[in-house]
Amino acid sequence: MKRAACPPGWSRPLVAAIPALWLAALFLAPFAIVAKLSLSSPATAQPPYTPVFDLFAGLVRLRADIAALTLANFTTIVTDTLYVDALLSSLRLAGVATLVLLLIGYPAAMALSRLPERWKPLCLALVILPFWTSFLIRIYAWIGILRPEGYLNGLLRWLGLIDEPVLFLNTDFAILLGLVYAYLPFMVLPLFAAVDRLDPSLAEAAGDLGCPPWKTFWLVTLPLSLPGAGAGALLVFIPSLGEIIVPDLLGGSDTLMIGRTLWLEFFSNRDWPLASALAILLLLLLLPPIILWRRLETRRWSAAA
Amino acid sequence: MDCERPFGAGRRTLVPSADPAARPLIRIRNVERRFGAVTAVDNVSLDLFSAEMFCLLGPSGCGKTTLLRMLAGFEPADSGSILLDDVDQAGFAPHQRQMNMMFQSYALFPHLTVAGNIGFGLKQQGLARAIIRARVAELMALVQIDGLADRKPHQLSGGQKQRVALARALARQPKVLLLDEPMAALDARIRSETQRELKQIQHRTGTTFVVVTHDQTEAMAMADRIGVMQGGRLVQVGTPADIYERPASREVARFVGNINLFEAIVEGDPAAGEVALACPLIPGGLAATRPAGPLAPGQPVAVAVRPERMQVLPGRLAQAGTNVAHGTISAISYLGDLTVYSVALAGGMTLSASVVNDGRRTGQGLGRDTEVTVRFDPHSAMVLTV
Predict the structure, then answer these.
(1) H or E stretch including B15?
(2) CATH number of the domain at A71-304, out of 3.90.950.20, 2.40.50.140, 1.10.3720.10, 3.40.50.920?
(3) Which residues, in sequence order, are CB contacts of B273 under 8 Å at separation 6+?
(4) Cβ distance of B107 and A201 shorter than 8 Å
(5) Helix/strand/coil for A58
(6) ipTM of the predicted structure?
(7) Residue to substitute from B98, B109, B118, B122, interface A, most A β-carbons within 10 A
(8) Residue A42 β-bridge partners
(9) What is the pLDDT of residues B8-48, one digit of tens each?
(10) Rounded to a whole number, what is the distance in Å from the CA of B168 to chain A's nearest CA?
């Protein structure tokens, strides 16, 4: 087949330039601004930090500004237990939420893939349906369910299981519940895509060769759907880690999550540099697992090819 | 299960089903399976014997794969029972049955190597690693894929995949091996060779093979016995020769091999060894071998004659005797070993007659539109009442 009339020398760079420019304008430039902010110091001024780079103030001033940049924000974050604790509790909650989501997501995805073909689109639509309502309102609704005089306590009391209302709201349990509820579709959909693709006779073959159903899952279904599980885990873990609304509405005052801490630094303390440093650290923390995942995926693809 | 049993222990000397004292390994009793309004398997009863190669033959959708999946335990029976060694299998899940299946898609585990696939079933038995390794090597030698142990399924050719699937299914030394269209994914070129090898392996391992196929030449080539299924029913069970020479019905006759069917009426006294029949297409009348069942004068039946039993002569014979028809050649198919002539009879029917190209009879001046006489012996003509 003949190639298009464009000389091969410059057509390719031109095509590649469009996404490159897009990334530069919408990702690299904001990132550079945040990175510079993270090295600045807070100030009671407008904007609330120093130094403010002014490219027209001359080279001497610019040199002084660069010299004024400091790593103090990072030192504060690493030494102040508040931030480390917030980060650790975020990692813990996001990790547990991801595990719970995997435990719920697998049976859900497998049940979906075993439905008759004509029911699948409808049931998948039902999984996505909650997105039609605002995230904020859906999390707000949980307050009504979880508060001491809420529906859950009412139900438990009606069943005679409790006498005193149980404290659900403003606990880690409520945050976990909120995270699991909010991110379930992000787990179920990639898992479904992975499980549904598998030839049903693979599971039958495992059963035929002596595996009871749980072992078939462990030896065949799970290893063959790991790409879907990994994609789902990343899709729920990363936003859970930085989640603001769920801990703010459902969490207690003593549970700090890193996203909420960042929010508070930015809007309540007006400490933009510290908030930026937190954002940068969070990004650096999330990069290695993403890169590792991408690399594993690439290897898997090249092996399959 | 005894895993040390060497291959070849079950060597047999005669077809077990021919021995009246033989005890069936599997008894299928009045088994039914319905999917909604469709009855996929309709009141099937069948005995399968130890160390036999049994082919379930039928067109697609006839219920043969469903019956196979019921044996494996993937489909429950709505009624009836399946007994293996006199033990009802109804309470056993697939992983508890001493039967293994080779899937049509092969269903090899893509994340495991060839050795991992073949050893999968052995690992579930909790055997020691060294024993598994030895057994896997033995199986790989049996199906002739030595040296491929560390390959992944996607690195194998279709024929190699089929061998891995066969070795994996044989690994646990099942009493019965169930094969679902084992040749369907292979090139026609290697199919007949693989059929021969499969039969050899079956013979060496002494395992009972139940093969599902829609290909009658494959069934004839491999089977000790064939069960023909049509519309969920098992319509005939017998040796390949039984099925071919004495089909139970018009439908079986049409499905297995090519056949010429004359609709005819029983005439005269059918008590003799030969039956005289009237057929509007054959003015001189028909004479055919008497079937086993009762026949009454005036009964409408079909007379079936295989194309290779037809004799084609150029020209028009003067006398219009029994089993003699006149027509013109409407088409000629040269198949190398055979030449098949389509002969249009005056009554509107087209016969098919095949002639062996043995070097003597070729080139006898049979061309398109040649007027010919076709005749056949009474003992080559079968009477079909159904």
Answers:
(1) none
(2) 1.10.3720.10
(3) B289, B290
(4) yes
(5) coil
(6) 0.80
(7) B109
(8) A49
(9) 444 444 455 666 667 889 999 999 999 988 899 999 999 99
(10) 8
